[in-house]
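User: Predict the full complex structure for these chains.
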Amino acid sequence: MELNGNVPTGPLAEKWTKYKSSMPLVSPDNKRRLDVIVVGSGLAGAAAAASMGELGYNVKCFTFHDSPRRAHSIAAQGGINAAKNYKNDGDSIYRLFYDTIKGGDYRAREGNVHRLAEVSVDIIDQCVAQGVPFAREYSGMLDNRSFGGVQVQRTFYARGQTGQQLLIGAYQALSRQISLGNVTMYNRHEMLDVVLVEGKARGIITRNLVTGKLDRFAAHAVVLATGGYGNVFYLSTNAMMCNVTAAWRAVRRGALMANPCYTQIHPTCIPQYGDYQSKLTLMSESLRNDGRVWVPKNLDDAKAIREGKKKGKDIPEADRDYYLERRYPAFGNLVPRDVASRAAKVECDKGHGIVPTGLGVYLDFNAAIDRYGKSKAHSMNLESPSAQQIWELGQKVVEEKYGNLFEMYEKITGEDPYTNPMKIYPAVHYTMGGLWVDYNLQTNIPGLFALGECNFSDHGANRLGASALMQGLADGYFVIPYTIGTFLSKEIRTPRFKTDSPEFEEAEQSVHQRLTGFINNGGKQSAESFHRRLGKIMWDYCGMARTAEGLTTARRMIQELKAEFYADLYVPGTMDEFNPELEKATRVADFLELGEMMCLDALERQESCGGHFREEYQTEEGEAMRDDENMMFVSAWGWQDTSKEPELNKEPLIYENVKVAARSYK
Amino acid sequence: MKLNLKVWRQKNAKVKGQFESYQVVANEHMSFLEMLDVLNESLVSGQKEPVAFEHDCREGICGTCNLVINGQPHGPQNGTTTCQLHMRHFKDGQTIVIEPFRAKAFPVLKDLVVDRSAFDRIIQAGGYVSVDTGQAPDGNTIPIGKDVAGQAFEAAACIGCGACVAACPNSSAMLFVGAKISHLALLPQGEVEAKKRAQKMVHQMDEEGFGMCSNITACEAECPKGISVENIARMNREYIGASFTSQDK
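Assistant: Here is the predicted structure of the two-chain assembly.
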């Protein structure tokens, strides 16, 4: 298949502006006659539904949650990037663009990323106008902080709950459109298929999660904003219900899945502590502004700590290895996530880990507490303050900045992170891969669009911190309201669709068949138990380090697991009721197919880049080694059918505005 | 640790429910919901129907989880949602009673799952700033004092879980509504519509069947996010102000 990214021609900085002013429009009167379905109500979905409702389209918005405000965007902690240059520290749209391309290890599309950087500034303005209570300085101006992989301060934040505040802003904008009748909201409705009529996306099949009823909804276009698929690993920082089903059903209908192997493993999460564990908890990257990452230099010390004979604070300064500062002096603790995660794994593999499983490193705030304490004592004119006084003053400053995160850590681990350094380890957090989309955010199926984490477009092989919120809102508020017009302007004469056509009939029947299949399967094992096993395979073979041999093994294991799933799955209850086990079964079934595709993609990508690290391809110093000559393309996989291998399509990546170089943070 | 659970089971909204007893073996590192996962896994493996309960982020921020544990919404630990509650706060051999949030405006859908869509409808009635995408001036055009932004943030930190309603003997939603009215009224962007917003939201709150404030501040005590009852005072001020000055009847 020939893949065309449809990036407008002309100079990079003018592409979006020129394109916007020349793209076909839909008149207000015609908008009223066009229906748009938005699936998902997180940052991208809520922003898109609200903005398209404001424009006058008839919008139907769907979520499987009990309320649009529950979407997982709410859990984002650290912040949102924007090239405002409020700090006068040399930031610019170009620099945000460049940092994102470099951070993504030169595997993202230039045109899309530059547009993202351009609209980033509008997002902050929009959110402030909605009443998002961003952190302020004493002057009343917006405050900023730093995130990994950049040397400027461009991250806007609302304590450690930025995602919550941005989502509530989008939710309120959406609520306003619901009250005005421009958006109809369907809570507790899960999309289980997309309906194609004459090759175009014209509707969806949903299941009402309370009554179990299957419903058909028709529209002129369908927008998927259904998030990422990190839960394929079972243990991740994603919410329990995050899943790939909506996107995967689109893949099964012909949409292409791009770069599925690009997974972000976040360096600072609370380490795993037991087999019963249901999820992992993130500790925001913002902590690396002040926290220093280290392990004991001596293996004996590490062993003593693992056995509970010593504590982190007992290790003298000289015996600590601040390995990020040592290996990457220019960026230190603020190297990008993929680099920090791999470095933690290297230390733990060498035996320096500090938790009983051996998989954990320290994130230490003592230096920051001391620094802030001294500065505070100075500003209070305290003469020769005691060490205790300094510690108390500094502790207060750190509490003000990160209090809610420290509290969350204490609740989960039962340890006080002020006195003993935090224990952290990398965990699956975000998926850069997703549905293939062009510049208009349209998939290869006409009329089917994908926004936010659901698409693959902006982060290449590694996403920078505080860029997920930026992309979700950029896509929802400032891109799709324009680009959907390129498709809908050709549909103004298309009458509203009826849902009694053979296409809708076939789609509903196939969903019905699938669900009754699960209910009547009559096996013994729960969907949850299969999910756990799949997650372990994915983490062991398609996680932080991958090899051709391991990935081949993983594919075989997943195929066997899938066969066992269909032979021995047990789903209690019936289809016509609130049945979370049935929901889980459909999601795990799709994760099994996706997991295998991820291994295939990782196997085919014979290089290391960003979050994808193949042990065969590394420099002598253990850094990722790209193969720009042979691998500079987007892998877009097309589903054939269960008996055939997915088909690989390649979209070449062309860099006209940045010099492609080895990524260095040293 | 061995625990005796008394769990509310109810097939659907139309039938009566009852308590059922279960034994479960847990350990103190588990979260409360992981303990329920263990119970459900054993029910499913015995081909019995698992207990339906709602949860999602398990980080205390999405507001989905909603249990009443031994009579307290979100259980015994202050400032903690059910998903962040850990078993180390319980004793071996303890009996734990688990119920759904109870309120007329929150009907039970199944077992421990309730319908909280009344909260959405209250926000839809006016819990927003009426600004369209693309209309905004530069974010630094209006300076907002650090303390004012902080106060607004504290009100905006509400996660919409409904514990305030479950804690109140009158099932009042005033803490939830007050928090939203305060969040927006405190900021210059939201202040323009503050009075009208208060009227509309309070009206919708009454329509939904939430009760009057009981003045015992159990809502504040049980709120996992520490939302202050000062927000109710601010709501009353906006509402009373509106009834004197409002142009629309």
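Chain A touches chain B through 81 residues (CB under 8 Å).
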